[in-house]
Amino acid sequence: MNLPELFRRYLKTQKVSPVTIKNYIADIKNFLGWLATKTGIKYQVAGKSIFSLLTLETIEEYKTDLAAKRTPLSSINRRLSALRKFGQFGTSHGWLIKNEISKVKTLQAPLVDQQSPNKKVLAEFKKHLEAEKVSQITIKNYLSDLRHFLSWLEVAT
């Protein structure tokens, strides 16, 4: 049973845009691959019974793993949207009796402390560059590089 292809057909009947269909299929394949790695159960073998594994606990673990891999928040939320639609698909075919996936919440960006040490360093460095009459594009690039370095440093330590 080719669930991604059946899901694609379902999305077309729901008048979903071609770009969203492409993204949702990729997201579902990502999830099904993750699920196979975690459980050893492949959707190609399990078929429609794979929907019995779509529990809140499973989705929460998936979200946690995505966040741990530093997946961008927008990508995580799109994948969750794809899973919610996948749950609707399963329910519409009677393969999923209780669609717990619809209860899954999108993630919100954490509030950033405006007075964090990194913010202060970036602000001071920007002032220094402006005083040196460095071009705005160079300042932008330097600050971007410094943000990436500071982010890496937080992970590495």
Q: Describe it for me?
A:
The structure is a single chain. By secondary structure, this protein is an all-alpha fold. The chain has two domains: 3-103, Tyrosine recombinase, N-terminal domain (DNA polymerase, domain 1), CATH 1.10.150.130; 117-156. The protein has helices at residues 3-13, 18-39, 43-46, 56-68, 73-92, 117-131, 136-156. Helix 6 runs antiparallel to helix 7 (136-156). The chain is elongated, with a radius of gyration of 21 Å.
Low-pLDDT sequence parts: 111-115
For the record, the count of structural domains works out to 2
The CATH H-level superfamily of the largest domain is: Tyrosine recombinase, N-terminal domain
Mean pLDDT: 85
The name of the CATH topology of the largest domain is: DNA polymerase, domain 1
Order of helices and strands: HHHHHHH
| Fraction of residues in helix | 55-70%
The CATH architecture term of the largest domain is Orthogonal Bundle
- Class from secondary-structure proportions: mainly alpha
Can you identify the CATH class of the largest domain? Answer: Mainly Alpha
Q: Using the alpha-carbon principal axes, give the shape.
A: elongated
Report the sheet with the most strands, covering strand number, pairing sense and barrel closure: none
Number of strands: 0
Count of DSSP H/I helices: 7
Distance separating the two termini: 46 Å
Global Rg: 21 Å
Portion in strands: under 5%
